[in-house]
Amino acid sequence: NTDGSATLVSNSGTLAKTGGTGTSYVDDLVNTGTVKAQSGTLSLFGYIQTAGSTDLDGGGISGSVLDFQGGSLIGNGTVDASVAMAGVISPGHSIGALTIIGDATFASGGTLQIELSNLDNTSDLLTVGGLLDLTAAGDHLNLTGGILGQTYTIAGFNNITGQFDHVTSGYDVTYDLGNKLISVTAVPEPGTLGVLAMAGLTLLRRRRNRR
After folding, report:
1. How far apart are CA 131 and CA 40, in angstroms?
2. CA dist 42 to 4, 7, 45, 54, 128, Å?
3. What is the distance between the alpha carbons of residues 171 and 17, in angstroms, rounded to a whole number?
4. Is the Cβ–Cβ distance between 25 and 43 less than 8 Å?
5. C-alpha radius of gyration, the chain, whole number
6. Is there a contact between 90 and 124 (Cβ–Cβ < 8 Å)?
7. Which residues contact 85 (CB under 8 A, 6 or more apart)?
8. How would you write the pLDDT of the chain (211 residues) with one tens digit per residue?
């Protein structure tokens, strides 16, 4: 409904806002299926997700604190709320950008999933307008793709506390408190460095033998 009244909903299928540029209100929603905002704004007060996904696909989401105990928050657009995350945040549907206006608090098991371009310096981007809280033990930064030696900006924040506990191997992470950014650089893994070094020595020996 669009008049601001509350409705108790438990969703295990698909709940989608597909039309109109205004705000639709759904309060006290427990989601284990798919919630999708495809236009306008879907207002979710008292929102709990234990499985499934919340997908920004052309629309936005608003609320107070969205409690993700599992499943994923994906897509492009703006979440006008604070987020408690024990599931996965994955900006975009491929490479894209997701903005959380309030705070984002990662719990143990909470994961930021980021895709890096193999062609240039573009990547998924999470922007947090409030506090990005990474103090919980057991949170994850999962990274895919990227060009060796290339640096990517993957997150922005107003304030930050803590760092990701677990980071995909093969990447260096920089927490830039001055510019309020998190960036990553794709680097060779230790085993790869050894292979490259051996290849370099072999090439050098061949050149010397030719002389």
Report:
1. 26
2. 11, 13, 10, 11, 19
3. 38
4. yes
5. 21
6. yes
7. 68, 73, 104, 105, 106, 107, 110, 111
8. 455 555 568 999 999 999 999 999 998 999 999 999 999 999 999 999 999 999 999 999 999 999 999 999 999 999 999 999 999 999 999 999 999 999 999 999 999 999 999 999 999 999 999 999 999 999 999 999 999 999 999 999 999 999 999 999 999 999 999 999 999 999 998 765 454 445 455 545 555 555 5
